[in-house]
Amino acid sequence: MGDTQDSPSGPSEVILCGTFTLVPGTGAPLSLILTRKELLIQTLSLDAQPSPHYSLALADCIGCRSFRGKDPTELGGYLTAAFCPLRGEALGKTIYRQRVSRTFRIEVSRDKEHNFNVAKTWANRIWEMAEDQGPPSSILPPSRRFLVLLNPFAGTGKASGHFQTHVIPTLTEANATFTLLETERPKQAQELVRDEDLSGWDAIVVMAGDGLLFEVVNGLMERPDWACAIKKPLAVLPGGSGNALAASVSYYSGHKQASGTKLLNNCTFILCKGQPVHLDLVSLTTSSGRRIFSFLSFAWGLISDVDIESERYRFMGSARFSFGTFVRLTALRTYRGRLSYLPARTSPDSTPESDSHRHNLNSSTDTVNPNVLEDSLLVPLNEPVPPHWTTVTEDQFVLVLLLYQSHLGADLFTAPMVQSPGEGVMQLFYATSRISRASLLKLFLGMEKGSHMGESIPHITNVPVTAFRLEPLENVGIMTVDGESIPCCSLQGQIHKGLGRIISIPQGP
Ligand SMILES: Nc1ncnc2c1ncn2[C@@H]1O[C@H](COP(=O)(O)OP(=O)(O)OP(=O)(O)O)[C@@H](O)[C@H]1O
């Protein structure tokens, strides 16, 4: 059995090569070659036939560790490397991440400690090379500590089981630790993040639907130290029926559209390999003076009706939205209201509201309130919108939607133009009462793959905006913020670019 060799990094970029055996396995020798990009595994055979080989990309590596054999008489050094490569491409199916873990044994001498040290060198170099494949500035520590908030009743009620079978093994391989809290009632997560010291965790992970993350964001914004607390990195694992942010982050991180446990696998990989990036938050103020913080969407009309009315089809999982849409299309309603907005192009380009928050100049009293985030683009709701805003001339709507992420659901690729969670723009979509059922059907069918943006659908408008106001002329219809219903009322909102942070894998330069 040959010894392991350390090669200088030349054009071949071989970092290490050596002879191992696979565990468990037949004991047949394998050649392992570590390059800057991959781990090549080749069966060694004595006949002249070319040996089968395969490679694992280091960009997909989530962890690597070395250890000694348990039996004191066992001399080998051991190495386990875990990867989450993409699967399904060759079969033309949905491409998604699937965990692959390989353990190798090396015995280059009769000295157990020496063999262990060789395995350790390999594990360290593999991990070093794997880290080189990631984003340049690693903000999270290598051993990540997560607070996981899980809603056991989200979606079809499988979140706890999926966490055990799909998430824990991957977190373990990635050397991450976590504290799991299963929520027992609504608002528990909101109160917890509002009241607790969060410094013991590197990120707050929500395994649920968008509703639980909505609680977390609003809980953080209720803290006296909200400006600092809202910078705590958040992460999403899809466990509910509305998993729009999880689907969006998976898309931003370079994955094809997926749902169910495939999306969960993608998001678990992102949790292990990603970095905190800016997350836009929208501050909404209602006519009753309520302040709500939103990371995803505001909806009125068809979309919010479907979201809430389809609760009764919860057993269907995310399919409840498609089914609910078809049901609602048969009994279409219109809603009267005045819609105004500030087009994105006319507002000054704002930088992420990272470390220096502008605080509130409370316009009703003209006193500075340092404890409140300022909505600098808005005037009080009882005053007319500023003259440089646009007011839609029609006042009969079938739907009004403001979406700030790419997906409205795991299967609803509604805003394909959104490429990252912190662009500082809301995508306003509205349909007036003149829209036909056929056009709405075309819209919703197109949204499954995002193809609706390339089609001409009459009476649907899309405008990028940074602020909006909606004044219902009759207080009817359901309004939703991030999929959670609120009483129908006049309200307005503005985007705060990069106010929060979410773990994602940025693509491109
Ligand atoms: N243990 C619990 N029992 C009942 N409700 C809970 C519990 N924990 C959280 N909730 C509430 O459930 C709501 C929906 O949660 P979540 O978004 O996680 O699931 P979901 O199935 O995707 O729901 P939806 O599609 O309605 O948003 C949240 O508003 C949250 O307050």
Helices and strands, with pairings:
Blueprint: E1 5-6, E2 14-23, E3 29-35, E4 38-43, E5 53-57, E6 61-68, E7 77-83, E8 86-87, E9 96-97, E10 100-106, H1 112-132, E11 145-150, H2 159-173, E12 177-182, H3 188-195, E13 203-208, H4 210-221, H5 226-229, E14 234-238, H6 244-252, H7 260-273, E15 275-286, E16 291-294, E17 297-301, H8 302-309, H9 319-329, E18 335-343, E19 359-362, E20 367-373, E21 390-391, E22 396-403, E23 426-432, H10 437-447, E24 460-472, E25 479-481, E26 484-486, E27 491-504
Parallel strand pairs: 11-12, 11-13, 13-14
Antiparallel strand pairs: 1-2, 2-3, 2-10, 3-4, 4-5, 6-7, 7-10, 8-9, 15-16, 15-27, 17-22, 17-25, 18-21, 18-22, 18-24, 19-20, 22-23, 23-24, 24-27, 25-26
Helix pairs in contact: 2-7, 3-4, 6-7, 8-9, 9-10
The structure holds adenosine-5'-triphosphate.
Structure description:
It is built from 10 helices and 27 strands. Residues 1-11 and 354-368 have low confidence and may be disordered. Strands 15, 16, 17, 18, 21, 22, 23, 24, 25, 26 and 27 form an 11-stranded antiparallel beta sheet that branches. The two termini are 43 Å apart. It has 3 domains: 5-132, PH-domain like, CATH 2.30.29; 145-279, Rossmann fold (3-Layer(aba) Sandwich), CATH 3.40.50; 283-495, Tumour Suppressor Smad4 (Sandwich). By secondary structure, the chain is α+β, with helices and mostly antiparallel strands. Adenosine-5'-triphosphate binds at residues 151, 153-155, 183-187, 208-212, 215, 240-242, 483-484.
